[in-house]
Amino acid sequence: MTRNLISCAAVVSLLSLGACTDSWNSFNTEAGAEVDEGAFGGPTMNNSLVMMGEIDATQALAGRFASEVPSTITFAFNSSEITPESAAILSRQANWIAQFPEVRFRVYGHTDLVGSDAYNKSLGLRRANAVVSYFASKGISRSRLEAVASFGETQPVINTTGPEQANRRTVTEVTGFVKGAPSLINGKYIEVVWREYVEGATRIHPQNTTVKTEVDPAGAGG
Question: Whole-model pTM above 0.70?
Answer without folding.
Answer: no
